[in-house]
């Protein structure tokens, strides 16, 4: 009797293991419908520049110095900066670009050398842009995860960054999936299912956009359309999964004493993605930071309250002269 029970238990375990190993491959992953190459979705002022072997979608405005490089957050694109690009250009040159896995920048699924979706590759991409435009030193402006990249560039290449403007930066949280689960995400089974997981942003995206705003009723349909536009690009789902696999904790919270350059931290007073308290804490822990809290604004004050945002920027720039 015991022997028979043992065989049944082993059979059940074997079946469950087989289901776990083979089951995910039985889930169909249909191809994206109507996907287009990035160039087909470009605007008249779009540029595609090869940086580190990657075709990067860039927009520029203005001329002279200072030079501002604008880095958008997760799930966004350079369109996030549209309301403030012209005001920034009144001070100098503005360079906005789509980070890998977002916007209209190329989304490779295989590569030689460095994985383009890693934090290190994103740092190298910013430096590559500066080199392309023959910019010796720039002011980096980063929102959310883009603020994280801006800070990493400043640490790795301090001679190339004159100041930081950090907009609701993701410093104390974020960094992708927890370290303990990453090996699971890299299994062949999850690589098969990954694009399906990434596609959830199609349904959840509008909710996340609304969460980023203090007053979602002010969201124009054109703004939502700009956020959804990159979801028409071929392989966007697979690239987003590759980005997820490459993400890692920044460790910036342990290195704040190294940021001795001028820093402006801007946050909305109702940020429900990166809590407002986190930005206030960051400004207090950075050696040379000033803080502006914009009223009636959420995670993207440059979109929601561009006038107050630029007022804060203008006041900060005046201190750099």
Description:
This protein is α/β, with parallel strands linked by helices and 321 residues long. The chain has one domain: 3-Layer(aba) Sandwich (Rossmann fold). Helix content is 42%, strand content 15%. The protein has 12 helices and 8 strands. It has an 8-stranded mixed sheet with strand order 1-2-4-3-5-6-7-8, with helices on both faces. The chain is globular. About 2% of the residues have low confidence.
What are the SSEs and their pairings?
Elements: H1 2-26, E1 47-51, E2 54-61, E3 67-71, H2 82-89, E4 93-97, H3 119-132, E5 138-143, H4 145-156, E6 161-167, H5 182-185, H6 188-198, H7 200-212, H8 221-228, H9 236-246, E7 263-268, H10 276-285, E8 289-294, H11 301-304, H12 306-320
Helix pairs in contact: 1-6, 2-12, 3-4, 6-9
CATH-level-2 architecture: 3-Layer(aba) Sandwich
Helix content: 40-55%
Report the β-strand fraction as a percent range. 5-15%
**Tally of contiguous helical segments:** 12
Task: Report the strand count.
Answer: 8
**Unreliable stretches:** 14-20
CATH C-level class: Alpha Beta
CA-to-CA gap between the ends?
87 Å
Write the element-wise H/E pattern from the N-terminal end onward.
Answer: HEEEHEHEHEHHHHHEHEHH
Examine the coordinates and then state which fold CATH places here, giving the name of the CATH topology: Rossmann fold
Major pleated sheet: 8 strands, mixed
The CATH superfamily label reads: Alpha/Beta hydrolase fold, catalytic domain
Anisotropy-based shape: globular
Strand order of the largest sheet: 1-2-4-3-5-6-7-8
Structural class based on helices, strands and sheet pairing: alpha/beta
Number of domains: 1
Mean pLDDT value: 89
Radius of gyration: 22 Å
């Amino acid at each position: 009797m015991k022997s028979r029970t043992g065989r049944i238990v082993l059979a059940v375990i074997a079946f469950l293991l087989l289901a776990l190993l083979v089951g995910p491959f039985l889930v169909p992953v249909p191809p994206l419908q109507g996907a287009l190459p990035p160039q087909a979705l470009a605007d008249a002022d779009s540029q595609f520049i090869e940086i580190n072997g990657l075709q990067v979608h860039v927009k520029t405005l203005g001329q002279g110095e200072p030079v501002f490089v604008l880095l958008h957050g997760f799930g966004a694109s350079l369109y996030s900066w549209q309301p403030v690009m012209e005001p920034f250009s009144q001070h100098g040159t503005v360079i906005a670009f789509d980070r890998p896995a977002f916007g209209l920048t190329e989304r490779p699924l295989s590569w030689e050398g460095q994985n383009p979706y890693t934090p290190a590759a994103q740092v190298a991409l910013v430096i590559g842009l500066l080199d392309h435009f023959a910019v010796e030193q720039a002011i980096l402006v980063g929102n959310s995860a883009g603020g994280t990249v801006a800070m990493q560039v400043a640490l790795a290449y301090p001679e190339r960054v004159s100041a930081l403007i950090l907009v609701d930066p993701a410093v104390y949280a974020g960094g992708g999936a927890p370290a303990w689960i990453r090996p699971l995400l890299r299994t062949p089974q999850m690589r098969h299912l990954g694009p399906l997981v990434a596609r959830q942003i199609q349904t959840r995206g509008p909710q996340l956009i609304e969460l980023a705003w203090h007053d979602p009723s002010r969201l124009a349909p054109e703004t939502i359309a700009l956020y959804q536009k990159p979801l028409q690009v071929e392989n966007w789902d697979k690239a987003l999964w590759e980005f997820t696999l490459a993400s890692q904790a920044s460790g910036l919270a342990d290195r704040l004493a190294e940021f001795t350059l001028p820093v402006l931290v801007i946050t909305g007073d109702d940020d429900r993605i990166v809590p407002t308290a986190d930005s206030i804490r960051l400004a207090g822990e950075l050696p040379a930071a000033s803080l502006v809290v914009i009223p009636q604004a959420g995670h993207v004050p440059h979109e929601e309250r561009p006038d107050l945002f630029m007022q804060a920027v203008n006041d900060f720039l005046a201190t750099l002269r």
